[in-house]
């Protein structure tokens, strides 16, 4: 399969490669550690064959974009709304933006030299079959180059209305000294499989927030593959309110020294169909980088949360500072909090630590609030809010925080 | 006799010169105080004398009885009788205070060709020293410095000094973090250890410690150099007028 | 008063100094003993399984049990998930049965045991031929003398290559109804007990190495503590591999009946040989209501030389089944030996309010590789588990902690606490932490903490400044790092273990 079956383009060799790899990889080997807590059938069989029962929420929690000066890129039912790029295109001195289609059909497009590199980096030790599938199946996406020193905040809005699949592939090239915030919103009735490759050059500062809203009716898969150069700073924060399976894979290769990486995730599931799976791999390949992973899941109604996280420190990555924390708040029966926080360390002058705590709300805390006259239910709500506060503190945008708070409140109501 | 000759020191990590030509001669029984503002190189001097890694002597010499000690490792210098009372004594979880002291004492005895003490002999010696310093044996059962208060840590340093019987003691900001009572206790300990064949170098920012431990000489250090030397009255001058007027 | 207390409390610490002196010592158990051996032919087949069973004069049910395991095993493959790299093991190049010729007839007492063998144990520091020890065999009153001296008694079962060479204090234990003998003897003399419990904790089909062991185990220890009995002395087994190209496959079964208590120690050594030797043991513990088993291991199999040549491949399945309510198991292990270690002493906390504890020090130096940890399976209500693991990597070694904590949906009000620390010495080794935590009950709680670092420079300098040389300082700090685990050992073992910690790290500093 190639891009449009008529002409040949640079992307064709990639599509072919992904196709072959995908065939070769034993996707359905359930014994693989990669699928330890969530079998591939959840993600793949359903993706291809079945549809999960959809249940649309009627509550109004859509993001209020009014009065904002930020930029917006829109996808609807898996298709890019080209007109949404116009605004960004005006600033071509600082930003080069193309649709996937335009980029892959242009022989000299800048992205042809970067495409797939971050994903290839992430293929050890696992081939990440769902991302391979994205590679062969995607025909939509945005490729953006942010030029040196650029500062920008923008949103990408993904909407689904027609039970179509949204297989989307993005590529972001962040040049030196940029300061960029990307906020992605996912809504509605669509099967999402997104791959975003990040190329973070020296001294870049990137904040990536994604909000998987609670009206998502189907499986959601997102792979973020990042290559980080010297002294770059990346923060990738995930908010999942879906009651359907979510697989959030973040794979960061700190290729330069003195990088700073934060991966955080907040998940709130209240139904047995809800699976929030964070699979995170941070590879320290040079000296003096710092990484943090903070995972928080609140679970009720039989929901399940999964965290497979690894800090890898190569033998030259001395002075690494790595931290990993996973917390599961189990509110009712039949929920599951399943974690495998791993350290794989080959350098000696490092400080790496991880912790994991799971359990229900602290009785002493509840009692303290009740003793001050706060009814039990309200006390519980407050403590759940408090549980999430650490993740919310990672972001500064008041509008975004309010939007997230609102979703939490709806779930707590 | 302890002698520092034209000492220049770099800290390797930052590749920066911190000590810029110091000369100092300390005879047996003398107590010298080095005072100076923050960042003048006082702590660097104490680490250099005791042989900590990363403190690179680029010029000059340090001599004990006319022999250079520059080539000696930290443990060898300790066995030769150089003792550093740390500004922040290190906590080592799981290592018993007693066990640590016995290992230290026996290592030094072995280095100097003396027989090692068995546990009973050791306890006898230690108990005597602790009694002299009014230190409760309870403190010795705990892991090394772990969970000690600031005062306990400093007293534990003085006890180690008493036990190891060094010839040359460096006290690095021993008064930091101590209230008046604790400072008195520690000073009494130090004073009880003063003798004709033991000399002291007291490094301090404030004059107050010198009210309790009377120095024979006071040196003012700034920017890695000794800029003034005089008797104890110099400390009082600093207390009254600060460092600024000396520096200009 | 306070002084006496002080000394007792400092007992372990004081020995650190002695242990430090031993730093220069190499692997001191590396000698081999020249003894005429009786081997079964090389390789593995149904015939060999039959032969082993026949040599042990086993009943037919035992033979059938073994054969079923063998048939299962040939269809299985070695696990590939551990972080271990080693040459393929040719299972047909091993001897599965070796026994000193002089033991052809089972000795009635230790005096009938070949002197060369006893010398071996003496060299290993096992008190096998000591007077009080011999007394245990012939039932003289020396044993009581010892009691008056206030030194703890230790009853020993010693296993040499494939067979048990003698168990001490047997008669004294028998008076209490305690059975402590080799498993081959137990199969003959207590078949009902063995039949009832063997394979019920570690099923024959459990894993590749356990299944292999089920087919070819030649000997091991058997312990039964009757209801309400508190075993008055430490029970101990020493394992030694001597013969070349010989696998050792011992099987241990301990049953603690209601309300009983036993502390069991296990020590292991092997000679230095260029080839890798295979060790695949199975240990099953059955713990009934209110019973308590303390199981301690000092594993010091030959680790191979500093170039990674030779050493034991150690694949061990150890599991405790806390069947009874309020039952308790405590695993303590000091793993310093073996070229390759694959070992996860586990607790199945089935009984209500049962408790499992796991304390481990794993040291890997030179080319050693260790993938070790525990499994805590919480099935019963109110179950508790605690894991303390200290891993030290030096040289070119790889050291992995792998642990599972699973809280079943029905295990309400259960708790786990895990503390897992790793130290690296030098930048050619690796330290890895692979915990699996699965909490499926909302009233239960899991807590996991792990750190990885090197020896703190400031701690090291502080020791140096007090005149302690670098190797001694490192040994001191590492013993402090391991303190929580060493304290969990019986006193005599704690001293031995401290020395081992220092010896194992020899050459890793500077």
Topology:
The complex is a heterotrimer of chains A (413), B (248) and C (510).
Chain A: H1 11-24, H2 40-48, E1 71-76, E2 79-80, H3 86-89, E3 95-99, H4 100-104, H5 117-121, H6 129-137, E4 142-146, E5 151-159, E6 164-174, E7 179-186, E8 190-200, E9 205-212, E10 220-228, E11 233-240, E12 246-254, E13 260-269, E14 275-284, E15 290-299, E16 304-313, E17 321-330, E18 336-345, E19 351-359, H7 363-371, H8 376-392, H9 398-412
Parallel strand pairs in A: 1-5, 4-6, 5-7, 6-8, 7-9, 8-10, 9-11, 10-12, 11-13, 12-14, 13-15, 14-16, 15-17, 16-18, 17-19
Antiparallel strand pairs in A: 1-2, 3-4
Helix pairs in contact in A: 1-6, 7-8
Chain B: E1 2-11, E2 16-26, E3 31-35, H1 42-50, E4 55-64, E5 67-68, H2 74-79, E6 82-85, E7 92-96, H3 97-111, H4 119-132, E8 143-144, H5 150-164, E9 168-172, H6 180-192, E10 199-204, H7 208-212, E11 217-222, E12 225-230, H8 233-241, H9 244-247
Parallel strand pairs in B: 3-10, 3-11, 6-9, 9-10
Antiparallel strand pairs in B: 1-2, 1-4, 4-5, 7-8, 11-12
Chain C: H1 2-9, H2 11-21, E1 37-39, H3 46-55, H4 60-73, E2 98-100, H5 115-123, H6 131-138, H7 142-148, E3 154-160, E4 163-167, H8 170-175, E5 179-182, H9 183-189, H10 191-197, H11 208-216, E6 221-225, E7 234-240, E8 251-256, E9 261-269, E10 276-279, E11 282-287, E12 292-299, E13 311-322, E14 328-335, E15 340-343, E16 346-349, E17 355-364, E18 369-372, E19 375-378, E20 384-394, E21 398-407, E22 415-425, E23 430-439, E24 445-454, H12 457-465, H13 470-481, H14 483-486, H15 491-504
Parallel strand pairs in C: 3-7, 6-8, 7-9, 8-11, 9-12, 10-13, 11-13, 12-14, 13-15, 13-16, 14-17, 15-18, 16-19, 17-20, 18-21, 19-21, 20-22, 21-23, 22-24
Antiparallel strand pairs in C: 1-2, 3-4, 5-6
Helix pairs in contact in C: 2-13, 2-15, 3-4, 4-11, 6-7, 9-10, 12-13
